[in-house]
Amino acid sequence: MSMVPNPLSVEVTVPREDTVLLTVQGYLDADTAKEFQHHLANQFHHGRRHFLLDLSAVPFMDSSGMNIVLRVYQEARDLPGSVQIISPLPAVRRVLDLTGVSITVPLSESLEEALGRVDSLSGAPREPGS
């Protein structure tokens, strides 16, 4: 029997030079938060300013996960940059709403919507089809 019933998986893709998409799968809690933090720190090290967090495969997030989201939000804002959460499952969205995190960190329903918000923040014109 595994000691970690729901290990964390983080897939990192770079849709644009200064933007990173982290697709998270599994529980984002006290047991996995440090691993998630390492992925984020690595992307800051590589000069990313905009962080898109796809939480569509995260069935549970506790205060450890929320604290990391808020920390990356603060760090990105200082660059200046941004953080967006994409497609949180209902249970995670409820926690984000109840704690007020969704007021601070924008929620998007899709990668396209999130990239559009990044464009509006940076003033970059959006290319047709992107």
UniProtKB/TrEMBL annotation:
Pfam family, one: STAS
InterPro entries in the record: Anti-sigma_ant (IPR003658), STAS_dom (IPR002645), STAS_dom_sf (IPR036513)
CDD domains: STAS_anti-anti-sigma_factors
PROSITE patterns in UniProt: STAS
Family, per entry: Belongs to the anti-sigma-factor antagonist family.
NCBIfam families named among the record's database cross-references: ant_ant_sig (TIGR00377)
Residues of the STAS domain: 17-118
Record-given protein name: Anti-sigma factor antagonist
Gene3D superfamilies per record: STAS domain (3.30.750.24)
